[in-house]
Amino acid sequence: MKKYETGSVKTLGILIFLAGALMALYFGQKIFVGDQQSELADNTAQEPVAIGEIKTLDETAEQEPQTTQEQPVKTNALTADQTPTTAAPAPAGKLSEVHGVGNDHVLVGIPSQYTTKAEQVHKDVYDPLMQLIAAAKADGINLTVVSAYRSYKRQKQIWENKWGDTADNDTQKALDILKWSSFPGTSRHHWGTEIDFNSVALNYWNGKEGMRVHQWLAANAPNYGFCQTYGPNRTKGYSEEAWHWSHIPTAQQYFDQIRDPQTLALVTSQSIKGAAALRELGTVADYVTGISPCHPS
Question: H or E stretch including 65?
Answer without folding.
Answer: none
